[in-house]
Every structure is written in C-alpha cells, then in structure tokens.
Design brief:
heterotrimer; A mainly alpha (309); B alpha/beta (332); C mainly alpha (317); B: 332 residues; alpha/beta; Rossmann fold; 2 domains; 4-stranded antiparallel beta sheet; C: 317 residues; mainly alpha; 13 helices; 0% strand; disordered N terminus
C-alpha cells in the first residue's frame, strides 16, 4: 500500500513535470511575443516590458524561475490583464467552471447509468433499442450543436429559460444539458455492455438460485461489478468535460476558466496559458488517482498496484 | 417412500439461429425423500437443462418449458408465478453449480452472500442470520468460520469455495438440493472430500439430492439411484446396484465400459463410437440406434416404450421385446 | 398428454415382426449434414449486412464521399466567391443551401467542409493506426522490460489532457490542416497502441505462434504474418471510431477559431460562424453544418458498432 502510494506519487509528479516542461517550451516556440500585437508601443517600451517580465533572459533561466515559483504555488502575473495575477484569474474562473463541470458530471453519470441499466435489463427489447439509438445520437452531436439546438428550442422558440451568464440555477440548466449529453451517452453505452456481460456471469445465476428479487440482483450483485469500466472512464471523461467547458462557456457567455483560457491563447498571454494548463493537469491527474482508489474500493481483488487471483 | 419431487414428461426447447433445439424430450422421474438420485450422461444430453428447469432458471428467451409438469409440494413448478418461484428457490429447492471459482460474487464478502439468502427467506435478526451462517460454515467444514465470514471469495481455495457454495445452498434447510457437476472443476483429492461432505450432510439434514454428473466414479460413491440420460431422454433408471451390475440399455453398458475400472481384472476400456444425434431434428426412433451395436430396423422407426424390470429398474430399449431376444439368441 | 405419449411410443404388439432384424447400415445417413462454413470475413460481411442501421450509415458515408468530390463542381459558385449583395439569402434555386454573411454559397462550402472533415478524420486515423500498431505491436510482442518501460511512457502520456495538448500545438504551429492532423495524431495513437498490445499479449502464446517461433521465423515476419491478421477485428473497430473522434476534434477546434483558416472552411468553422444566426433567424447557416457534423459522426459510430458485432459475434451486444 505505502510503496504503491509512493510509486504512484512519483509517476504523478513526473507526468506533471512533463506537462509543465512541454507547455513551457512549446509556448516559447510560438513566433512573436505578447507585445507584438500592440502597435502603439515602440521598441524601447517593448524591451522594457520584456525585461519586466524576464522575457529577455535565456529560456532555461526563465524555465528555472517558473519552476521555482510553481513550488510556492505562484503562477505569476498575467501579462495582458496586468492588474491580475494568474492565481487571481483562476480563483475567479474556477468556481464557475467547477460548478458547471460538477453538475454536468453528476447529471451524466446518474442518467447514463440508469439508461444503461434499463437497456441491459431489456436486452434486445424496445427500450434497449431506443436507449441505444438515443445514445449513439448523443455521442454524435457535438456539444456546441447541442447547445445551439437547446437555445433555439428553449430560449428562442419557446422562451422559458435564460441563455447567457451564470446568475441563477435556471441559467445553469441549458449549459449543463448541452455539456452532459455526450458523456451521458458514452456512460450509458458502456454501462449497458458491461451490465449485459455481468448478468451472464455464474454468480448472477447463483444469486437467482438463492431466490433474490431482480431488483436486489441488479443493484446489489450486478451493478457494482458492471461499473468497473465506467469508473475507468470517469477520469478521461472528467477531462473532456473540463475542456468541453471552453466551448459551452463561449456560447453561453459564462465567466468561467474556459473563457480566460481561450482569450489567453489568442493574446499569447504566456503565464495564463501556462497556469491554466498546469492547473487543469493537476485536476486531471488527481481525478485519475481517485479513479484508481475507487477501483480498489469497488473490487476487493485489486490490491492497489497489482491484481491477485 | 415419500416422493418430494415428481417430474412428468418434461419437454424443454431453445430457440436458436438454426432452429429449435429440443434439449429435453419427455423426461420423467421421481425423487424420494432423503435419497441421492444421480442423473448421468455425456455433455449436451440435457441433464443440466433438466435441473435448471426444475429451478426455472432456464434463460427465457431463448429457452422455454414446452410441456410436462414438475410437482413439488402439490404445486406444479412449471405453472407457479415468478414471485412464488422466488420463494421456493433457495428455501425449498437449492442449487449448486459446477465452477466454484465463478459461482461466488467477487465483490461481496462470503458472509454477506450466505446471510442474504437467509434474510431473503426467513424473518430473522441480523445477529441470528449471522449465527446461522457461522453454524453452516462450520457444518461444511470451514475452520474458524466467524473470521472467514468477513473475507472475499478470492481469499479461498477452490475446494473451500465449493464448501461455501454448498453452505449457501443449505442454509435455509431446503428439501431438495440440485448439484450440477459439483466436483468436476476440483482436484481429485478435493473431489473425494466434497463427496464425503455430501454424504455427511444428507445424514444430518435428510435433504434429497439430485446429482448431475458425467462422472461414473462420483456416481458410484454417492448415488442411491441412477438415471441415465441420452439425447434429451432418460433411457434407463435403476438403483446403483442395478445400473452398475445389471445394466440393460446398450448405452448404459457402453458408458460403464468406457470407465477405467480397477476392480475387474482384464477389463478393457471401450469407447462408444460416433456422436450423439443433432437435437434440431432428433430421430423418430431410438436416438442411440446410430451408435448401437445391436440396432435393429425397429430402433430407427419407433422409440421403444418403457420396460419395467423391478420396482426401481426401468429401461427404454427394443432389446427387451421378446422378438428381439429371440433374434439375439439366434444370432449367437 | 396421454395422447402425445401414444403417438411417440406404439404398443409393442402393433409393431410388425419383420422390423426385428439387424439394422441395415447405410453409411451416408450417419454422416451429419454440416452447414457450409463461411470464411471469417464473408461471415462478418453477412452479419454486417443484416444490421440495417450500420448499412444505412455505410450508405451515407459513401454518399458523403461522392458529394465531397463532386459537390463543389455541381454548383456554379466557388468556395471563396463573395457576393456582398447576396448576404444571408435563404435556400433557393440559385443558392441551394442559402448564403452566409459574406454572401458565399453554403452548398459549395458544406461539401468543401466535408472534404476537410473526411480528410482530417481518415488521415488522423491512419496515422494513429500506423504509430499505434508499431508501438503496441513491439511492446506486446517483446514483453518483459521493454513492454514495462513502453507502457509506463504510455501511462504518463495518457495523463496529459488531450485537448490541451492539441490546443497548445495549434497555437505553436499556427492554425492549419497539417497542424490539426499532427496535433490529433500526436495524442490519438495511445488508445490504438493499448488495444494492439492487449491483442498481441493475448494471442502471442497461441500454439501457431510458438510453432513458427520454433522454426526460427523472424520477429517482424511473425508480427506481420501471424499476429496482425488475428488482431484485426478490434483494430478495425478502433479505426472506425477514431475517424469520428478526429472529425469531432477538428470541429471543436475550428469552432474555437483554432482550426482551418478562411477562405477555406470546415463544418466546425461554419457552425461557429452560424452561431449568431439563431438570434437573426438565418437558420440555414447553422442547420446545414450542424446536421452534417452530427450525421457523419452518427454514421461512423453505427458502422463502427456494426463492425464490432460483425467481427466478434461472441461479444454480440
């Protein structure tokens, strides 16, 4: 357990370091500096700005300095929005993005699992067929198309819901629905196929031979085992929901992290791009770690790190 | 002797891609109180389907009980509702399956898997259920049962797991226990222990056992009566003594000759040539005729009716007909 | 029930005596009729043909490919042709899918977008396939330490947020078709490598592989001749599912303004352009690209699902 934890921590740190390094050097390979677009500034001013942000120093010095400041959890100042630090921007954007992401994940997981279970129980029946057609549709329609369809329906044709900003729970409904459809469809398909596989297992027959009711068999004996592949997927899914928020935040004018990220890319705001990437990576890596932990809890055969039997 | 279970002319079919497989074609037998009835036959002969039909565990679709009756406590199990059947499963009739490695849920403690069966059928407190589970594990020979209740299936060996499966099946004191190839997946030494356990338990609880197996060695050790199945039909039934020492059906004789025996000097192993018939379109006559060395024209045309040789011993074979006996005598 | 019994087993007395003679054996009857066995691929194709949804998807993809080639030629307009007097025209005889805010013909642009989307999807899937199969094949076949190290690397790469990497690469290399493909393949091969490795591990100990090993066959030849043909099923499915995810990623990037640049276009970019049309009522500017993205994704997904069922009937879902 302990040695596994240490190994895991080391591999997480290596991943993180790779991401930071990759991002750092990729970004500085971008032609042009953050100030080239400002036409009004002359060369002297530009050089002053560069030296203020240490952009005139050799790359490895900047890299070292950045790593050092990261250790103190300081992501540096924003170049474009000079009154803010990157920490400020993340501090403002993240609560909103997190709220959006959390509810999306919750909606997607709960409805996806229910849909998948229902389809598996009526394997090859009409419910199965409908649910799976719906699921393939859900996977096929990109979130931005979904978002526009929802806006068209519920804000323009039949205006019952607001579309822009992030003011009340009512404002959240459409963005969450738009973002949750895809992941929900993926979870539903996966739950269904693994549920069908589990329901064919010998231990399910044993449970039936004990006289247990179908409800007990499904929820106590089958679901837990069927959820393993779904749990595996959650890490990657959380990441895709995180990035999915970029688009949704753009469409619904939600003041979350995605908005700052896209802006920072267009404006070559290095520290913000770096900071956001690092932050997202940390979130993702932690998610993947939690998935591993959840694995061990769901399946007692898996002693963290290795499989038995 | 009291009959606890009566199966009458049971027909079970499976719908598949290629058509309807008639897996069980008119099986009739009784199970007496406290006895062990072995159903013997090669794989695909319908013995497992018969046992799962009694529990109504045939996956439907594609399988279904076409006709016949299964009488248990004045009820026809082919007709009772599913909720009613659930009350019978595990409480009155229990079943254990072939592979103990897959029969237990890997993510639930063995204790919980035993206790949930008790609580499904009996109004008892959690503590009482736990005590019953501990007693049961003790009975099937699992050391320090209290501690092992908290463990998961993967922490047990194959033989131990089969003991747990047996404990699980017996914990509600059922009247009938159906064991489908209970020792096939186990090592030979463990097999002997498990068979010993069956005898021991039957003595203590008086449970009636239907033992499904293809292994005549197992049958010889525990069965009181034996039913030999071939191509969806029971071709011969009799007491253990009758089947082993006075087999009448050529298939039964063939089976016995294909088992290595140490007790008879100079006995050769003789395999039965050919393979069982296709159950998509079973032959009109005796299904064994194609492989039978004594086959006559009549065997291909008409299925033989039952001949009663003693109160227990019955056989479906044309060789029992007087005319056939004359023919055989003339040929020798 | 009594009746049934009678039909099956006659009373012995009514059976004629002459039937009691040794059976006249005719060999032909004993040999059971065996269903003619189809080859694996023929059998798979037969199963696929039965799947109506998958066949419809396949048909749509053929249609799409044909239209991507000839679509822009049918229309009198060209992809970059702007006509500011004809802004935001609804679909008509002249402009079949209407025009956009710069007066460009939507019909031509939709098929032009199809070219880009299909090209991106197919090339990215191909690149994934080649990298993934080499990496996964070597890792699985070599096993041991090599496998361990190669899989560690994959594990770490798997931890990278995929779209972030793509976005960063787009920023660095500048938007464009080549960049999109490089960016997509740089991250996309990991899934393929994992699948190939799993397949190889599963079958490399099969006897026929061991047999060719004992004959001293070279590693490369064993991989090519023995392993690949037997691992194709899941790999083909993975390819069919990579294409839509590449198309999806391209649409996503173009939507964010990081993809194809004007005057060229893709469906994602057109959808992004058309977003404002919800409020102005120019529905055709959004509906056509949105429909084609979704329909193409749907088609690839159902074909992929159909192939999965057809190629591995044991896993029939």
């Amino acid at each position: 357990m302990n040695s596994y934890f240490v190994k895991r921590l080391i591999s997480m740190l290596i991943t993180l370091w790779l991401i930071i390094t990759l991002t750092f050097f990729l970004m500085h390979a971008i032609p042009g500096s953050p100030f080239t677009s400002d036409k009004n500034t002359n060369e002297a001013v530009q050089n002053n700005l560069k030296s203020f942000y240490h952009l005139d120093e050799p790359l490895y010095v900047q890299y070292g300095a950045y790593l050092k400041s990261l250790l103190t959890l300081d992501l540096g100042p924003s170049i474009k929005q000079s009154s803010f630090t990157v920490n400020d921007l993340i501090g403002r954007g993240i609560p909103v993005s997190f709220e959006l992401g959390f509810w999306t994940l919750l909606v997607a997981v709960v409805s996806g699992i229910l849909l998948g279970v229902a389809a598996a129980l009526r394997h090859n029946g009409i419910i199965d067929y409908l649910a799976m057609t719906f699921a393939v549709l859900g996977i096929s329609v990109p979130s931005f198309v979904m978002a526009t369809l929802l806006i068209q329906q519920f804000a323009v044709n039949w205006p019952i819901l607001p579309v822009a900003t992030w003011a009340s729970p009512k404002h959240m409904i459409l963005p969450i629905l738009a973002l949750a459809t895809g992941p929900m469809a993926i979870i539903a398909r996966l739950t269904r196929s693994s549920m069908i596989e589990v329901l064919a297992q010998d231990y399910i027959r044993t449970a039936r031979a004990k006289g247990l009711s179908p409800v007990k068999i499904v929820f106590k004996h089958a679901l837990r085992n069927a959820l393993m592949p779904v749990v595996t997927l959650l890490g990657a899914l959380a990441a895709s929901i995180l990035t999915g928020t970029f688009v949704i935040e753009k469409i619904f004018a939600i003041p979350g992290m995605g908005k700052y990220f896209v802006e920072s890319i267009n404006q070559r705001d290095y520290p913000v791009i770096m900071g956001t990437t690092v932050f997202y990576s940390v979130v993702l890596i932690i998610m993947l770690y939690l998935v591993d932990l959840a694995y061990g809890i769901i399946d007692p055969r898996i002693k963290l790190g290795k499989k038995e039997g | 002797m009291k009959k606890v279970l009566q199966v009458n002319d049971l027909h079970v079919s499976f719908r598949t891609y290629g058509g309807e497989v008639k897996a069980v074609r008119g099986v009739t037998f009784d199970l007496n109180k406290g006895e062990t009835l072995a159903i013997v036959g090669e794989s695909g002969c319908g013995k497992s389907v018969t046992s799962q039909s009694i529990m109504r565990l045939i996956p439907n679709p594609p399988g279904r009980i076409v006709s016949g009756s299964i009488l248990f406590k004045d009820k026809d199990l082919t007709k009772v509702s599913e909720p009613e059947m659930r009350k019978i499963r595990g409480a009155d009739i229990s079943m254990i399956f072939q592979d103990p490695m897959t029969a237990l849920n890997p993510t639930i403690t063995v204790g919980e898997q035993i206790i949930e069966g008790i609580r499904q059928h009996k109004k008892v407190t959690a503590a009482e259920a736990k005590n019953a589970a501990v007693d049961m594990l003790d009975l099937v020979g699992i050391p320090s049962p209290e501690a092992r209740l908290k463990q998961y299936p993967h922490q047990f060996s194959g033989g131990m797991r089969q003991r747990i499966v047996i404990a699980m099946a017996l914990v509600c004191q059922p009247e009938v226990l159906i064991a489908d190839e209970p020792t096939t997946a186990l090592d030979v030494t463990i097999q002997a222990q498990i068979l010993e356990l069956f005898r021991d338990i039957q003595e203590k609880t008086g449970v009636s056992i239907i033992l499904i197996t293809h292994d005549l060695g197992v049958v010889a050790q525990v069965a009181d009566r034996i039913a030999v199945m071939y191509a969806g039909k029971i071709v011969e039934t009799g007491s253990r003594r009758e089947i082993f020492y006075n087999p009448q059906h050529p298939y039964t004789r063939g089976l016995l000759r294909s088992v290595p025996r140490l007790d008879i000097e100079g006995a050769d192993l003789v395999p039965i040539g050919g393979s069982p018939p296709d159950l998509f379109s079973p032959p009109a006559g005796c299904p064994f005729a194609a492989r039978c060395e004594y086959a006559m024209d009549v065997c291909d045309r008409v299925y033989p009716s039952e001949t009663r040789l003693s109160s227990n011993h019955q056989v479906d074979c044309w060789l029992q007909d007087e005319r056939a006996k004359k023919l055989m005598a003339a040929m020798n | 029930m009594a009746l049934r019994k009678q039909q099956e087993t006659h009373e012995a007395a009514v059976i004629p005596d002459e039937w009691f003679v040794p059976k006249t054996k005719n060999k032909g009857e004993e040999e059971a009729v065996v269903r003619p066995s189809l080859s694996y691929w023929k059998d798979a194709w037969r199963r696929l043909k039965k799947n109506k949804l998958a066949m419809a998807g396949l048909l749509f993809l053929v249609f799409l490919t044909v239209m991507a080639v000839i679509g822009p030629m049918i229309s009198p307009h060209s992809v970059a042709e702007q006509n500011l007097r004809n802004q935001n025209l609804p679909p008509s005889g002249d402009y079949w899918f209407g025009t956009d805010k710069l007066g460009r013909d939507m019909f031509v642009r939709v098929w032009y977008g199809a070219r880009i989307s299909l090209f991106v999807g197919v090339v990215a899937a191909l690149a994934d396939f080649i990298i993934g199969i080499i990496y996964g094949g070597v890792s699985g076949y070599k096993g041991g330490r090599t496998d361990h190290i190669m899989m560690r690397i994959v594990e770490i790469l798997y931890g990278l947020p995929y779209l972030l990497v793509v976005i960063l690469l787009m920023v660095v290399m500048g938007p464009g078709l080549l960049t999109i493909i490089v960016a997509l393949s740089a991250t996309g091969w990991i899934g393929m490598a994992r699948i190939v490795r799993g397949q190889v591990l599963q079958i490399k100990n099969y006897e026929y592989v061991l047999a060719s090993k004992t004959f001293g066959t070279k590693t490369a030849r064993i991989i090519r001749k023995n392993l690949l043909p037997n691992t194709m099923g899941p790999i083909i499915v993975q390819i069919t599912l990579t294409v839509p995810s590449a198309i999806f990623a391209e649409a996503f990037l173009s939507f964010l303004g990081l993809g194809i640049q004007s005057p060229y276009t893709s469906w994602g970019m057109m959808a992004s352009d058309g977003l404002s049309s919800i409020l102005t009522g120019h529905w055709w500017r959004l509906v056509f690209p949105a429909f084609f993205i979704s329909a193409t994704m749907f088609a690839f997904n159902v074909v992929g699902d159909g192939l999965q069922d057809a190629l591995d009937p044991r896993l029939r879902r």
